[in-house]
Amino acid sequence: MVVLDCCHAGRAGNAVAAVTAEAARSAGSYLLAAVGGSERAWAPPGEPRTWFTGGLVALLRDGDPTGPPWITLHHAWRHLDRAAQLCSPPLPRPRRFAAGNADGLVLAPNPGYERGQAEAEPPADVPCPYRGLEPFTPDDAADFLGRADTTGELTDRVAAGSGPVVVIGASGSGKTSLLNAGLDPALRERGVGVVRMTPGARPTETWADLERPDDAVLVVDQFEELFTACDDDAERRPFVDLVSESTAPVVLAVRADFYPHCLAYPALRQALTTGQFPLGPLGLDELRQVIEEPAARVGLGLEAGRSRPPPRRSTPPSATTRTPRGRCSCAWCASASTPTTHGARSPGTRSPPDANPPKSRPCAGCGTRSRDRTRAS
């Protein structure tokens, strides 16, 4: 049994819950509703259908170039759910209920599948613009994107020369790439040399074998090797002393999960107190640059919205929020405004008491009554 509830409030869920007894569950049942039980389906002004019905019709008619060969109930729900979140402001999300294997029931062939496959094939002579899991090297400085501000801050800290700088971040956060393709070229542009090392099993020997000019910056990457590769504390402590007492600038890069190990050594504890440089994840704008710019450099483009994160729902305005002059405050008119601002609430969000006009009262902004603004498919 499949129920499509395209109109008002997803109240078919009550009926499905009553019908789907044990026998029905074994056979499989599925509910796909435009909205939740306490919400209304919304239609864009001037459109003959709600966004849910229109989106479902468009999916079955035009297909999804990024989808599988066959449109299943689950794919239809996922496609509509993502479309609702990408709207600005976000629309009420569709609801689903599945029992048994109903999720995999095929609705129709995907008309856009072959088109998507053809579009997905890049020209044979275009190189892959992404490095994958390999860290950047100093030679990759021109392709090291998304960390310009972080590189500048770290370079200034190191150039200040006020003791060891400890770059600390989660595994895979990009510490090695930041040191190689960010800090190293930035220091060399200032005329400062860089010498790199990893501790290994014999860190003091590695230190002694380094050929380092007096004014060069020593970068110790993967400092956690002091605890993973070196199992002799009599070897560790002299190396910690060398690092902490060095007259030349020193930069350490250590995984965040080895923070407690460092705290066991007073010199490292002091370095973490005065020279800690936390490396967090990329921000949204930085992520977008990391995704879009490498593709653009080799002449490739991204499907619209692929590098855009789903927007968050805006919070309802307070009861004392005033609507700017010339802007309609009813929820229907607010659904067409982008972005949502004072007095305009997102469809499907609750408003404070008395924030909406009664059903029989015309909207002060558009003159229509609320019952005329609620549209079914």
Plain-language structure description:
The chain is of the alpha/beta class. It has three domains: 2-120, no CATH class; 138-278, Rossmann fold, CATH 3.40.50.300; 313-377, no CATH class. 36% of the residues lie in helices and 11% in strands. It contains 15 helices and ten strands.
Summarize the structure.
The protein is of the alpha/beta class and 377 residues long.
Write the layout of secondary structure elements.
Layout: E1 2-5, H1 12-19, H2 22-27, E2 29-33, H3 51-62, E3 70-72, H4 73-86, E4 95-99, E5 106-109, H5 113-120, H6 148-160, E6 165-169, H7 175-189, E7 194-197, H8 203-209, E8 217-220, H9 225-228, H10 233-245, E9 250-255, H11 259-263, H12 266-275, E10 276-278, H13 284-297, H14 331-334, H15 370-373
Parallel strand pairs: 1-2, 6-9, 6-10, 7-8, 8-9
Antiparallel strand pairs: 2-4, 3-5
Helix pairs in contact: 3-4, 6-7
Helicity, in percent?
25-40%
Strand order of the largest sheet: 7-8-9-6-10
Gyration radius, in Å: 29 Å
Number of domains: 3
CATH architecture of the largest domain: 3-Layer(aba) Sandwich
Overall body shape: elongated
Number of helices: 15
CATH topology of the largest domain: Rossmann fold
What sequence of helices (H) and strands (E) makes up the elements? EHHEHEHEEHHEHEHEHHEHHEHHH
The CATH superfamily label of the largest domain reads: P-loop containing nucleotide triphosphate hydrolases
The N- to C-terminal Cα distance equals 21 Å
